[in-house]
Amino acid sequence: ETGVTQTPRHLVMGMTNKKSLKCEQHLGHNAMYWYKQSAKKPLELMFVYNFKEQTENNSVPSRFSPECPNSSHLFLHLHTLQPEDSALYLCASSQEGYTEAFFGQGTRLTVV
Amino acid sequence: QKEVEQNSGPLSVPEGAIASLNCTYSDRGSQSFFWYRQYSGKSPELIMSIYSNGDKEDGRFTAQLNKASQYVSLLIRDSQPSDSATYLCAVKGYNAGNMLTFGGGTRLMVKP
Q: Do the bridges between strand A73-79 and strand A64-70 make them parallel or antiparallel, or are there none, so unpaired?
């Protein structure tokens, strides 16, 4: 079983749909992250959770709504997205402190 | 000024050569430094971490850190076509809390 698991791997949604991305980590980490990576662009940090508390919201539009019910699970709720939101969405986790982060496989999102 | 800067490339090297990838960062309080490799359409994979000044070797990879110059590099010896990917420098520092800051990545192409 991989350390950080994301579902679904691929998602196509209309602009009026509501969907959720799920991330689960089995590493015992206490920090979880959502990143967005658009085509040929750098990784963009979206949200950070430490011990289930949101510590970073990087000016993300409200159509993206994160949820962290516990330190092992992280969700990204999506509603009324735009075509420019099509991207690879990556979840990562790390232990508090100066340690590395591990990424999930990502969800390839296409908004039509 | 970007917090973590990398030359976007592409950096093209022949098979068997040494590839040298560079990264500079702005936060003097940074304590942890990481190199990730990302194949196209895939999630980043951690390949090296370094925490103190000097060199750290792991197989064909050597990470070099110079905190006084705020500079970290990755050397890949005996480069192989399978090393062709985007290499991301990431920094975690005192001022950034528990947050990884990524550079834009350098695309490496190893030609047979």
A: antiparallel
Are A6 and A106 in contact, with CB atoms under 8 Å apart? yes
Other residues' Cβ atoms within 10 Å of the Cβ of residue A46: 20
Q: Are residues A56 and B90, on separate chains, in Cβ contact within 8 Å?
A: no
Q: Give the rounded percent of residues in chain B with a pLDDT score beyond 70.
A: 94
Determine the Cα angle at B106 with ends B72 and A7, to 5°.
105
Give the Cα separation of A22 and A8 in Å (integer). Answer: 7
Residue B68's pLDDT is: 95
Q: Which residues of A touch B98 (CB under 8 A)?
A: 31, 48, 50, 55, 94, 96-97
Work out the minimum CA distance from A63 to partner chain B, whole angstroms: 23
Question: To the nearest whole angstrom, how far is the Cα of B39 from the nearest Cα of chain A?
Answer: 12
Per-residue pLDDT of chain A (112 residues; tens, 9 = 90+): 569 999 999 999 999 999 999 999 999 998 899 999 998 788 888 998 887 777 777 789 999 999 999 989 999 999 999 999 999 999 999 887 668 899 999 999 999 9
B8: closest chain A residue by CA: A42
Please report residues of A whose CB lies closer than 8 A to that of B90: 101
